[in-house]
Specification:
It is a single chain. The protein is mostly beta strands. The chain folds into two domains: 57 residues, no CATH class; 76 residues, OB fold (Dihydrolipoamide Acetyltransferase, E2P) (Beta Barrel). It is 8% helix and 33% strand. The strands form three sheets. Strands 4-11-9-6 form a four-stranded antiparallel beta sheet, with no helix packed on it. Strand 2 and strand 3 form a beta hairpin. The protein is elongated.
Length: 156
């Protein structure tokens, strides 16, 4: 289904930000329509008009399923270094004296293992534990979320 403005309003550039339907009510309406054979609905309520037309390419597919992201279980002998904030991961923390960590390399507690760039500032990521780098989970330049696993360490 696609949500569009009514045919006579398409070229006017008028878009109503908030109508008489709450987002929850609109969501419920769309779920009901997805389970029906209705191809087009033109609804006018309290001076607002909503026009919904089913996309022929989507017929028979229903609503997309939303599932929880799969999270791999970390083995008990593994410690994971996570992102302290949202940003872009950098393997080099900016200092020339600190080479980027590599798989199989030894890490000491408190060692800088990379950085997360946010708002053009590099925020260093330090390992809380000593160990050997088992796996690098993100690439240099990859966007990361708060708490996202970056590096797996195994005890040394």
């Amino acid at each position: 289904m696609t949500l569009e403005s009514p045919p006579e309003d398409r070229d006017s550039g008028l878009v109503r930000e908030r109508g008489p339907l709450s987002p929850d009510e609109l969501g419920e309406l769309l779920r009901v329509l997805a389970g029906s054979d209705v191809e087009e609905l033109d609804l006018e309520c309290e001076g607002a008009r909503l026009w919904i037309r089913r996309d022929p390419a989507m017929v028979g597919r229903g609503l997309p399923e939303i599932s929880e992201p799969m999270v791999e279980a970390t083995p008990p002998d593994t410690f994971v270094v996570t992102a302290p904030m949202v940003g872009v991961f950098r393997r080099s923390a900016g200092g020339k004296s600190e080479p980027p960590v590599e798989e199989g390399g030894s890490i000491i507690a408190g060692q800088v293992v990379g950085a997360v760039e946010a708002m053009r500032m590099l925020n260093r990521v330090q390992s809380e534990r000593a160990g050997v780098v088992k796996r690098l989970l993100v690439q240099d330049g990859q966007p990361v979320e708060y708490g996202q696993p970056l590096i797996e360490l195994r005890p040394s």
